[in-house]
Structure formats: C-alpha cells, structure tokens
Amino acid sequence: MDLLEKKLYEAKGRKINRHPWELAREKIINRILKNAQSQASFEHLDIGCGDGYIVSSIARQLPQGRFHGVDIELETTLLEEMNEAAPKNLHFYQNLNEVELSSPTAVSFTLMDVIEHIEDDVAILDQLRQKEGVPKGAQFFITVPAWPFLFSPHDVFLKHYRRYTIGSLKKSISKAGLNGVEFHYFFFSLFMARTLKTGLLKLFGKKEAVPESDLVWNFGEGIGKIVTQILFAEYIVMRGLARVGIHLPGLSVFGLAKK
C-alpha cells in the first residue's frame, strides 16, 4: 500500500482493508518472481515498497532470496517497526544508497506503480541500471497506471505526474538504457469501470468525488477474494493474448526490461 494511503487510513482510525487490486498485484508479482528466480542465490529490490506488504509476502515465499524494500517516504519510527516485523531475508531502507548487493548470481527489481510519482522517470530507471553490483541481465518488473485520458483527481491526490500507454513506457525504458522484453495491459474490468465512470461524469458535467474514496474496500472479505481471483485470472488471459499480438486495454501496464 502507498504510504499516503496508509497515513489516510490511520488518520481516520480505519482498519486497513486491502483492495482486491492490491491483493491481485501481490499474486501476480509472486507468480512472476517464482518463475523468474530459479537460481539458488538472488537479490531483489522493491523500489517504492510502501508499507512493505507485497515484498514481505514474496520474501516469505522465496526464502532462498535476499530482499530489500526501499521507499524515501519511510519515516524512522515506521522503518524500525517494519524491520522488526520483517522476515530474516528482508530489510527495509529509506535510501537506495544504503542497499549493498553481495554479488548474487541474479538481481531483479520491482517498481510497482512507482515511476509515475517521479517527474523524471528515465533518471530513476537509469540510476537503478547503473547501481553498483547490478549485473548484466538484471530484470526490471514495472507496473504503471494506464491511459492518460483516465487521469483524474485520484491521480492528483496520489501525486502522479502521468499515466502511461505501452508505447510511452517502452520509450522511458529505452531512454534509460534498458532493453524492453515484454509489455501488456492488465485489469481489463477495472479499465472498463473507470472508463464508464469517467465518461458519465463528463457527460453530466460533474466533478469526481473526493479522491480518497477510491482507496476504500467496503464490500467484505468474501467478495474481495472473488474479485481478487477474477483480476488475477484477467492478468493470465491478457498476458497470453499479448504474446500472440492481441492487446486488450487495461487499467495498468506491465513492462519487463533487462539490463
């Protein structure tokens, strides 16, 4: 979860009910890393890790790896709490420069809805590419919000600079000196819902509701699990279709790049 969202929940005294969108992303990244990291020794950096929910889950399921969660918004007290609760193969940092790689056989990165928060997205990707200890062949798994026409007050609230298309993400990756490998959209049903909502608001000349309302899941755990499975299944189908040249639209873009 984004730390801005976490602070919002805590300020209102709410229990954190994770949205199926986030739970589905956790399943997706878990699947990707399990398939990608077959080596006996590897290190993984989760850049913009937020409250650490996803990287903690992955670290527990892949005990052979060494994991690093980095987020410049982590405050000292929260950072200490997260490191206290983290599995032994995971450590959290506020600064990327604090992370020291120990010459593993493989290195990978996740940047899950991160680079849209950075004005110069190319610069951060280039910085990661050039980090000491990152070998040739290192993998970068990147997700970003899709479609500029869907930019809304919710994006402004989350301090997004932009939304992407496959083409614009490819361009940023290439400019950073990375080699694009695979790209596709995902979360088709969420794209349809957001597009319909945006269209109706424009049709009736109304402004979008308070952005923070999008962060809340109020439909119960059981329904949440069903929606999570549907979103995960959509990802599998849309990735498969993209591999044969059929790109359905989605609310997010996935990109895989290599050094």
Quick recap of the structure?
The protein is of the alpha/beta class and 259 residues long. It has 9 helices and 7 strands.
Task: Tell me what you see in this structure.
- With 259 residues, this protein is α/β, with parallel strands linked by helices.
- It has a single domain (3-258), classed as 3-Layer(aba) Sandwich (Rossmann fold), CATH 3.40.50.
- The chain is 42% helix and 17% strand.
- It has nine helices and seven strands; from the N terminus they run H-H-E-H-E-H-E-E-H-E-H-H-E-H-H-E.
- Strand 4, helix 5 (121-130) and strand 5 form a beta-alpha-beta unit.
- Helix 2 (20-36) packs parallel to helix 3 (53-61) and helix 2 packs across helix 9.
- The longest helix has 23 residues, at 221-243.
Topology:
Layout lengths: L2 H9 L8 H17 L5 E6 L5 H9 L3 E6 L5 H10 L4 E4 L13 E6 L8 H10 L8 E7 L7 H5 L8 H10 L3 E8 L1 H16 L17 H23 L8 E7 L1
Parallel strand pairs: 1-2, 1-4, 2-3, 4-5
Antiparallel strand pairs: 5-7, 6-7
Helix pairs in contact: 2-3, 2-9
